[in-house]
Q: What sequence folds into this?
C-alpha cells in the first residue's frame, strides 16, 4: 500500500502524516487552533497496535488549502475533504477520531456517510444538536461567547491575536490548559495568519442543517470535566442523538486539550473502541 504524502480536492492541496501499513485505517482530525501535530502522543500507540493512521492538516491550516470565502468552510465542505482523503487512500470504510472542531467533522461524517465509517470517536465536542439544546438550557451560551466574537472581521481579530507578540492569546490558551510546545505552536499559528482557522467559525451559518441528524454508527464520546469551553449539559445530552452502539467516557480533571493531557488514557480507550468495531 502506498504511503500518502498529501491529498487533493477541488484544486486544494492538503498536508498529511501517513503511518503507512495495511492495518485498519484511522483518520485523526485536529481542532482549533492546532494541526496534525496535536496527535503526536496518541499516534504511536495506534501504529504499534497495527492500525494505519492518517492525520491531515485540515482546510484553512494546510498552506495549499486556504480558500478565502466563509462559505468554503461550511461543514459539508469539511466533511467532503475527509471523504476525498479516504478515496485517495483507497479506504472503503475507516475509523474517524476528532478533537474539538475535528470532532464536529467526525459527527458530520457519521451523519452524512455512515456507510463509510466503521467507528466514530469525538473528543470534547458533543453532538451538534445536543450543543444547541445546551445553549438554551444551561450556561453553554456564555461559555461559547468566543464563537460570536470570531464572527468579527478577520483583520480585527488578527490584530488581537498578534498583539504583544502573541502574549494575549498565549495567556488565554495557557489558562485553558494548553502548555509546552503545543501552546507555542498554536500561538505561532494564530499570530502569523489566523484567517483560515477563523473561517471554521465564520462558515457555521453556511452549514447544512441535514448534518445535525442522528448518528447510527458505533460511537464513543469523551468529555473532560476541566474543559473551560464546553459544559456537561451538552455532553450528557449527546446520547439522545446516537442510535447506534454508544460509549460515553468522562475524564475527571482533564482540560479541553484531551489528546495532549490524557494521551495514555485516550490511546487505551481508542484501542478498545476500534477493536470492538473492526473495518
A:
Amino acid at each position: 500500500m502506498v504511503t500518502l504524502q498529501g491529498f487533493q480536492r477541488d484544486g486544494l492541496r492538503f498536508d498529511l502524516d501517513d503511518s503507512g501499513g495495511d492495518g485498519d485505517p484511522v483518520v485523526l482530525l485536529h481542532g482549533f487552533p492546532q494541526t496534525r501535530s496535536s496527535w503526536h502522543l496518541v499516534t504511536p500507540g495506534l501504529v504499534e497496535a497495527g492500525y494505519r493512521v492518517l492525520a491531515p492538516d485540515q482546510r484553512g491550516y494546510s498552506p495549499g488549502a486556504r480558500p478565502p470565502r466563509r462559505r468554503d468552510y461550511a461543514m459539508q465542505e469539511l466533511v467532503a475533504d475527509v471523504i476525498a482523503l479516504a478515496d485517495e487512500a483507497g479506504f472503503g470504510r475507516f475509523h474517524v477520531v476528532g478533537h474539538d472542531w475535528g470532532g464536529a467533522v467526525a459527527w458530520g461524517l457519521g451523519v452524512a456517510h455512515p456507510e463509510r465509517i466503521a467507528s466514530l470517536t469525538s473528543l470534547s465536542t458533543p453532538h451538534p444538536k445536543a450543543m444547541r439544546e445546551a445553549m438554551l438550557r444551561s450556561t453553554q451560551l456564555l461559555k461559547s461567547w468566543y464563537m460570536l466574537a470570531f464572527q468579527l472581521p478577520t483583520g480585527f481579530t488578527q490584530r488581537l491575536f498578534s498583539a504583544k507578540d502573541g502574549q494575549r492569546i498565549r495567556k488565554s490558551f495557557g489558562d485553558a490548559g494548553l502548555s509546552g510546545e503545543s501552546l507555542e505552536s498554536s500561538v505561532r499559528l494564530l499570530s502569523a495568519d489566523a484567517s483560515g482557522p477563523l473561517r471554521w467559525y465564520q462558515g457555521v451559518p453556511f452549514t447544512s442543517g441535514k448534518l445535525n441528524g442522528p448518528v447510527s454508527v458505533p460511537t464513543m464520546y469523551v468529555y473532560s470535566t476541566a474543559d473551560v469551553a464546553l459544559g456537561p449539559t451538552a455532553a450528557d445530552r449527546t446520547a439522545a442523538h446516537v442510535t447506534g452502539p454508544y460509549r460515553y467516557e468522562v475524564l475527571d480533571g482533564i482540560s479541553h486539550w484531551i489528546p495532549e493531557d490524557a494521551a495514555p488514557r485516550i490511546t487505551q480507550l481508542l484501542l478498545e473502541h476500534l477493536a470492538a468495531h473492526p473495518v
Remarks:
- The chain has a mean pLDDT of 95.
